[in-house]
Amino acid sequence: MKSIKFLTLILLLVPFLAFAQDDYSFDLSEFEKEMEKKPYSVGGYLEFMPKIFRLDHDAAFYKLNFYNRPEKDYLDEYDLKLSMKGGYEKGISRVYIRSSINTTESDIKSRTDVTIDEGYLSVKPSSIFNISIGKKALKWGKGYAWNPVAFIGRSKNPDDPDLALEGYIMASADYIKSFSGPLQTISVTPVVIPVYEHVNSEFGERNNTNYAGKLYLLLYDTDLDFMFLKGNSKPSRFGADFSRNITSNFEIHGEFAYIDDITKKTIDSAGNKTETTCDVKSYLLGIRYLAESDTTFICEYYRNGTGFTGEEIEGFFNLVDNGYNSYVSSSDETLLKKAKTMTEGSYGRQNPMRDYMYLRITQKEPFDILYFTPSITCIYNINDKSYSLSPEILYTGITNLELRLKAGFLTGSDNSEFGEKQNDYRIEFRARYYFDAANLFD
Fold first, then answer.
1. Which residue ranges form the domains of the chain, and what is each CATH number?
2. How many other C-beta atoms lie within 10 A of the C-beta of residue 366?
3. Given pLDDT bands bounded at 50, 70 and 90, which one contains residue 38?
4. Three-class SS string for 114-177?
5. Is the per-residue pLDDT at 418 higher than 70?
């Protein structure tokens, strides 16, 4: 590995004071409890993550990304991230900001990104009603690795689904009411999402205002959600999810999403593009089980209705092969450039095919080794029999410091999803230090 020098970057969060209006009503006892706490919070973490990739010269995505670069067997990458979040509360109002600076250094890219992941003002005039405006990450869905009903959220990375995601600029509200009886809780969440050139431009078609909503019920000890998204930026969609504890250590969950008139774009081995419009259904069913040995099992089946068939993805891989051969023989990049235009959000997205199984097994402190947690994750493509296998070990024995060593092995035949990935395997180490900077303001 090469020695890389990183520039230390400091992110300063300056929350703004938000005053409550006199004509709002609120629960006085709740207000008094809040006044006993600090009105502000500032914290975050600093993370360093070196990685090494063993590249697969025969894979389609290696050819697509390295055809005009010197041939490499290994790729080193170094990531440095500073993530900070802060909040300030005054009466019934609260300002919250979460942002990050990400620096990446490798042999093929060097970049620094500054992102405001969340930044919003919320006002809670009563204990059952809350209004928010700004950039916010709403978590819809009960799945662990995938969330087909996350209509207004960004897609998770199923290989690391616990990572916090960037939100969208929106206006939302929450109304929560509790009852006695079989129906214990009801919650209504309306959402408005504008999409313009500099506002949520990556959400979908611009110059539109979109409307979404979620109805939550706690009914007979079962969590139920019903959600929708309407507007012209994306095709209309409707969904539902559920979660229920069968026993104290065994939970089942599921999601179902229906998307109306979605346009699917495919490309064949000659570079001919095709668009078809159809209605699709996506769904997920999963379990979470905690054994007496403190072993946690998470298993999910995911049906991706927007995914490609084996024939459709094979056409893309053949296009890359044809384009690569054409480039080697005549320096003609035409077919490779066509293939590249189809990778972003399409053939190059996480899990682009239709049927997947997910299994994660985590063992807390085996053999009484304190603060030590090993786990292993498998993502299996049912359609082409390819899979990824990711063992990891996590150590948290040092205050505020989290150390994780993780590997990822990809296995599959030619023209399979994981067989055509850029690398055969990767090894990464993550050191993350958490801090609380609130005492600096005391």
1. 28-441 (2.40.160.100)
2. 12
3. confident
4. EEEEEEEEEEEEECCEEEEEEEECCCCCCCCCCCCCCCCCCCCCCCCCCCCCCCEEEEEEEEEE
5. yes
